[in-house]
Design goal:
The protein is an alpha+beta fold and 959 residues long. 16% of the residues lie in helices and 29% in strands. The protein has 17 helices and 53 strands. Strand 44 and strand 45 form a beta hairpin. Helix 4 crosses helix 5 and helix 4 packs parallel to helix 15. The radius of gyration is 33 Å and the shape is elongated.
Length: 959
C-alpha cells in the first residue's frame, strides 16, 4: 500500500476565519455577531445535561431529520429528489451567536477569509465533504447537470472599507477545458474574472474590488452547471500578499487565523462513539442504544445510509440475518436488491424511514454533517476522536470507552495505528484460489449512478464533447449502473485519488449522455446524477480473525459465527469493450471479449467493469473479524472490517454489513456490563453475545441435499438448499439450481433401480463421507458405495458398489430411507423400508462405523407411516410409495425431518419431530404438524410416462 500523498488540512475543514497572517494584531477581532471564540477552559464543563454544548450539539439531532435552515436554505438535492431538508447546522454543535458565515475582521490587517461551505444560503450549490482528507476542506459544488445552479449567497462584514484583492481557492477539474467556471458577485456587481480555470486546487486571483460598506452581499455565480467548485474566498488589503499554497503552510495558516484551542470543546461523554452513518454504523448505534448505551453517531453527510442513501442510491442486497439482528437491519435498511434498479428515487423514502428509526432512539445523539478528523491514542487505546462541523468549522471532541469505525475507509483505525490492509493478497499468502499469483494494489472500484429520461419534447444540452470525448469516446448511454466503475486500476488509490476517480465518472456520464442526445436523442434530459461516489473498497482493518475465501466457500462455522452472508464472492475487473461488444457471440459480463474477438471496431473505455461471481451458500463471519487486533477498544463494521480482498467480494453488501453493526453494538453493551474489552467479550461472554445478536445458537444451519428419482429409475436430479434451525428449506432455483445426480453405471448388475437413498456420516478422523445407495426393483437387492463429499454436498472419489443390508420376509419393498443420528457418542443409522403397496414401513437400527459399514443391527420393527388425521390427503387412487427422513441439529438438539411422497410423485409432506439418542421420534400431530414439502419445480421434467415418485434427502452439517 502506498502512503497517502497528503492529508492536507485534515484538521481545518470548514473553518470560517479571520485572516490574520502577515498582520500585527495581537488577538483576532470577531465580528459583532460572532461572539467569543470557543473557550478551551470550558471544555470539561460541556457535559450532557448541563445545558452546555453537548445538550445543544444534537439540538434537533434526536429528531432524526435534519431541520430546516431557514428561508434561504435549500435541500441538498434541490427539488423533489431531496426528500429531507438540509441541516443548516442544527446538529452541528453549538454555533457562534451570529450563526455560521458572518466572517470576521482584523481592523489593522484588513483581511477576511470566508469558507464557501459556510455561506448562509448555498442556493443550488452542494456542500461536498468527500475529499477533505485530500484537498483540505469541504467545498461548494455547482452540480447542475448542464444548467447553471442558483447563486450561493452570503452577507459578510468587512473590517474596513477600501480596496481589496480577492483570492478564490478553486480548481479546474478537467484542465485545460475548464467545464466548471463561475464568478463572484460583490455588492451586487459580478466581477469579470472566470474562476475554476487553474489546474489543481489552489488560489486563483479574482482581481481587485472596492468595498464601500462594511456589510457586503456576496454571491457565487455558476456559469455552466458542470460542477464548478469553490473552497474559500479571501479578501486582503495587502495587494501583494498571496495566500500559502503549500499543504502544511496552508494548514498552519488557516488554524492560526482561527485561534482554535489546542483541545476542542467536549461534545459530551458517551458509552460508545460510532463514526460513519452508513447502514453498518446506523445499525451499530441503534443496537447499542436499545441496550441502554449512550451513543454518539457521527456522520459527514446530511443523510444516513451511506451508499444506500439518496445521495448515492445503491440498492441493498444480502441476507439480513437472524433474530434481533434481523429486526434492526430491517429497520434501518430494506432488502430491495431485486425490487428496483440502482439509482432509484425510492431511496428518498428509505432515507426518511431510516432517520425516523434513529429519531425514536433517545440514547442516540446524532451529529450529522460532522466529519471525523483525528483520533488520539495511548498504548494501543483510543482516548478520543475529534470531528468538525462541515458547514461551521466548529470542532468537538468525543470521548468514550469504546469506538466503532464504520467509515468505510477505515479512518479511525488508520489514525489510531491499527493494522491495515489494502489491495489484493497473493494466492500463496492464504491459499485462496481466487487471489492473484502476486499481491498488488488492485481493488474493487467506485461507482457514480445516473439516470436520464425521455421527455418526448425537444430539449437542449451543451456540447461537452471537447472535455468528455477522451473518456466517453463515441459511445452512448442514458443511465449508469453498477458496471460504471472506476478506480480498479492498481495505479489509482481509492483513498488518495478519490476526487479524481469521482470526476472521471462524471466526465463519462456527461459524455455518453451528450452522445445520445446529439445522435437522435434530442428529447432526452438528465434526470439525476450522483455526485457522492459509491465506493466498494479501500482500507481494511485487521482483527483477531481475517476472513478468507476458504471460510466462505467451505462455510466454516466458527464458535463465534455472528454474521451470516449470502452474497456470492463478487470480484470486479475492468471491461473496456463492453459497450460495443455486448452483442458479440460468446461475450458476456463474466466473459468479456477483446475488440478483435468481437469482430468490430471498438473504442475502449476505462470506466466500465464486469464481475466474476463464485456461487456460495450462506456462510458465517466470526465476531473476531469485527474488532481490531492491536487497538483494544476499537470495533469495525462494514467494508473496513477484517477480510481479505477476495472475502470482501462477498461480504461487503449492505444488509450483511448491517448485521456487523448490530453485532458490535451488542458487544459494546456487554463490554460496559462486564467492564471488559471487545476481545474479552469473545473470551468470556460469547454465548450471551450470540444469543442477543442472532437469537439462535447456530446462525448457520446445515445444507440440505434434496434429490428426486424418476419412477423408472433412469434419471435423478438434485439441488443443494439451505436449511434453517426449524427445518425450513430455502431451495430457490434461481440461486440453488438443479443438476443431474449420478445413478449407478450401466454395468451395475440386477433389476432396474426403483429408489435411491443417501446419508452423510462422520469418519474416524472427523471428516464426512457420503453413503450413496440404490434399491433394486422388488427390493431384493440394495447396493451402495462410499464417496467423498465437499461442503456443498458434491460427491467425488466414489468407491465400488457393494451390497448393503436388505430385509427379508416383509413383502415387496417399494422404497428405502436411511438417516444417521448420535447416541452416547456413537453414530447410529436407521435403515428403513416402505412396502410397495404403501401399507407399512419397517426399520432397524445399526451401529455405523467410521468407514460407513453397519453392525449390530436390531430386528425389524414397524416404523410410523402418516397417522390418520395427520393432514395428509392422498389424491384418489394414490398411496404412500416412498419415505425420506434425515436428522439435523437445531439449538443444540437433534431434530428429525420425517417425509412421505405420494406414489405419483406429485405431492410430498413432512413434519419436524424431536428424536432421542435411541432414534425414537416424537411426532405427535398436535405439536408436530405436517406441512406440504417442496416437490421438483418446473424445469425438472421426468421423461414421458414417468414421474418423480422417489425422493431422498441428507444434510451436511457445517458444525
Amino acid at each position: 500500500m502506498r502512503e497517502p500523498r497528503s492529508h492536507l488540512l485534515r484538521l481545518c475543514c470548514g473553518w470560517l476565519a479571520l485572516a490574520l497572517a502577515g498582520c500585527s494584531c495581537d488577538e483576532p477581532t470577531h465580528g459583532p455577531d460572532r461572539g467569543p471564540a470557543p473557550d478551551a477552559a470550558r471544555a470539561d464543563a460541556w457535559l450532557p445535561g448541563d445545558g452546555g454544548a453537548a445538550d445543544r450539539s444534537d439540538g434537533g439531532a434526536d429528531s432524526g431529520l435534519p431541520r430546516e435552515a431557514g428561508a434561504d436554505a435549500t435541500a441538498l438535492d434541490s427539488g423533489t429528489d431531496a426528500g429531507l431538508p438540509h441541516d443548516g447546522g442544527s446538529d452541528a454543535g453549538p454555533l457562534p451567536d451570529g450563526g455560521a458565515g458572518d466572517g470576521g475582521s482584523c481592523i489593522d490587517c484588513g483581511q477576511i477569509l470566508i469558507e464557501a461551505e459556510s455561506f448562509s444560503s448555498p442556493g443550488g450549490w452542494k456542500v461536498d465533504s468527500q475529499f477533505v482528507d485530500q484537498m483540505g476542506s469541504p467545498y461548494l459544488l455547482a452540480h447542475g447537470l448542464g444548467q447553471p445552479v442558483a447563486n450561493a449567497r452570503h452577507t459578510a462584514r468587512f473590517p474596513v472599507t477600501g480596496q481589496y484583492r480577492l483570492w478564490v481557492r478553486t480548481k479546474d477539474w478537467v484542465p485545460p477545458y475548464s467545464p466548471g467556471t463561475f464568478r463572484v458577485s460583490v455588492a451586487g456587481a459580478e466581477l469579470p474574472t472566470d474562476l475554476g480555470t487553474v489546474a489543481g486546487w489552489g488560489w486563483q486571483d479574482g482581481g481587485l474590488v472596492t468595498i464601500a460598506a462594511l456589510d457586503v452581499a456576496l454571491a457565487l455565480v455558476d456559469k455552466t452547471g458542470f460542477d464548478g467548485r469553490c473552497d474559500a474566498l479571501f479578501f486582503t488589503r495587502d495587494l501583494d500578499f498571496t495566500p500559502p499554497g503549500d499543504a502544511q503552510a496552508l494548514l498552519t495558516w488557516r488554524r492560526g487565523l482561527l485561534g482554535l484551542p489546542g483541545t476542542p470543546p467536549s461534545a459530551g461523554s458517551f458509552d460508545l462513539v460510532v463514526v460513519g452513518g452508513g447502514v453498518a454504523g446506523t445499525a451499530a448505534a441503534v443496537a447499542a442504544a436499545r441496550r441502554g448505551l449512550s451513543v454518539a453517531l457521527i456522520h459527514d453527510r446530511p443523510f444516513l445510509g451511506g451508499n444506500a442513501s439518496q445521495e448515492v442510491r445503491i440498492h441493498t442486497c444480502g441476507y439480513e440475518g437472524e433474530g434481533p439482528a434481523r429486526a434492526i437491519v430491517s429497520a434501518v435498511n430494506w432488502e430491495n436488491c431485486n425490487e428496483e434498479p440502482a439509482g432509484s428515487e425510492l431511496a428518498i423514502g428509505y432515507d426518511q424511514s431510516r432517520h425516523a428509526v434513529v429519531a425514536a432512539e433517545p440514547n442516540v445523539h446524532l451529529f450529522l454533517e460532522h466529519r471525523a478528523l483525528r483520533a488520539a491514542t495511548a498504548s494501543g487505546h483510543i482516548t478520543s476522536v475529534d470531528a468538525v462541523a462541515t458547514r461551521t468549522g466548529q470542532e468537538l471532541r468525543f470521548s468514550a470507552p469504546l469506538y466503532v469505525d464504520a467509515t468505510g475507509d477505515g479512518w479511525i483505525g488508520a489514525w489510531a495505528g491499527a493494522e491495515v490492509r489494502y489491495g489484493r493478497e497473493s494466492r500463496d499468502e492464504f491459499g485462496e484460489s481466487l487471489a492473484p499469483a502476486q499481491a498488488d494494489t488492485m481493488k474493487l472500484g467506485t461507482s457514480v449512478l445516473w439516470q436520464a429520461e425521455d421527455t418526448h419534447t425537444a430539449t437542449s444540452f451543451p456540447d461537452v464533447s471537447t472535455w468528455t470525448a477522451a473518456v466517453a469516446r463515441g459511445h452512448r448511454a442514458t443511465s449508469g449502473n453498477w458496471t460504471w466503475e472506476y478506480g480498479i486500476d492498481p495505479a489509482l488509490n481509492t483513498v488518495d485519488d478519490a476526487e479524481e476517480i469521482r470526476d472521471h465518472l462524471l466526465r463519462a456520464a456527461y459524455g455518453l449522455f451528450y452522445n445520445h442526445w446529439a445522435n437522435g436523442g434530442s428529447t432526452w434530459r438528465l434526470k439525476w446524477m450522483g455526485y457522492v461516489a459509491g465506493k466498494r473498497e479501500s482500507r481494511r482493518l485487521v482483527g483477531d480473525h481475517l476472513l478468507r475465501e476458504q471460510d466462505i466457500v467451505g462455510r466454516v462455522a466458527y464458535p463465534d459465527t455472528i454474521v451470516v452472508g449470502s452474497w456470492p464472492i463478487d470480484l470486479h475487473f475492468e471491461n473496456p469493450c463492453s459497450l460495443c461488444c455486448s452483442g458479440c457471440s460468446g461475450c458476456s459480463a463474466s466473459a468479456p471479449c477483446s475488440c478483435a474477438e468481437c469482430g468490430v471496431t471498438c473504442q475502449e473505455v476505462d470506466f466500465l467493469s464486469y464481475c466474476v461471481q463464485t456461487h456460495v451458500f450462506k456462510y458465517g463471519v466470526p465476531y473476531r473479524a469485527l474488532y481490531s487486533r492491536n487497538i483494544d477498544n476499537l470495533f469495525m463494521a462494514g467494508r473496513d472490517a477484517s477480510f481479505t480482498h477476495v472475502a470482501l467480494g462477498g461480504i461487503r453488501v449492505m444488509n450483511t454489513t448491517g448485521q456487523m453493526g448490530v453485532a458490535v453494538g451488542v458487544a459494546a453493551s456487554l463490554c460496559k456490563q462486564y467492564a471488559t474489552t471487545p476481545r474479552g467479550v469473545y473470551q468470556d461472554h460469547l454465548p450471551e453475545l450470540l444469543l442477543a445478536t442472532t437469537g439462535v445458537e447456530q446462525p448457520l444451519g446445515p445444507l440440505l441435499r434434496l434429490g428426486y428419482v424418476q419412477s423408472d429409475g433412469a434419471r435423478a436430479w438434485s439441488q443443494t438448499c439451505e436449511l434453517s434451525g426449524t427445518g425450513a428449506q430455502d431451495c430457490d432455483t434461481a440461486t440453488h439450481p438443479f443438476s443431474a445426480w449420478s445413478l449407478p453405471p450401466a454395468e451395475f448388475a440386477g433389476a432396474p433401480v426403483i429408489d435411491r437413498y443417501a446419508f452423510v456420516y462422520r469418519t474416524a478422523s472427523g471428516g464426512h463421507r457420503l453413503r450413496n445407495g440404490f434399491l433394486m426393483a422388488g427390493g431384493a437387492e440394495s447396493r451402495s458405495q462410499d464417496c467423498g463429499i465437499d461442503a456443498a454436498g458434491r460427491q467425488s472419489n466414489c468407491g465400488p458398489f457393494t451390497s448393503y443390508p436388505s430385509p427379508t420376509g416383509i413383502g415387496a419393498i417399494g422404497g428405502r430411507y436411511a438417516f444417521v443420528y448420535s447416541a452416547s457418542g456413537i453414530q447410529k443409522v436407521r435403515l428403513g423400508y416402505v412396502l410397495a403397496d404403501g401399507s407399512a414401513s419397517h426399520s432397524m437400527t445399526c451401529d455405523l462405523a467410521g468407514d460407513g459399514t453397519t453392525s449390530n443391527c436390531t430386528a425389524l420393527t414397524g416404523y410410523p407411516l402418516p397417522p390418520t388425521g395427520s393432514g395428509i390427503v392422498l389424491t384418489p387412487g394414490q398411496k404412500i410409495s416412498d419415505r425420506y427422513t434425515f436428522v439435523y441439529r437445531a439449538a443444540g438438539a437433534q431434530k428429525l425431518r420425517n417425509g412421505f411422497t405420494q406414489s405419483d410423485g406429485l405431492k410430498s409432506w413432512s413434519q419436524t419431530c424431536d428424536i432421542d439418542s435411541a432414534g425414537n421420534q416424537d411426532c405427535a400431530i398436535a405439536t408436530h404438524p405436517f406441512t406440504e414439502y417442496a416437490q421438483p419445480p418446473p424445469g425438472v421434467v421426468p421423461a414421458a410416462g414417468t414421474s418423480a415418485n422417489h425422493r431422498y434427502e441428507f444434510t451436511i452439517d457445517p458444525y
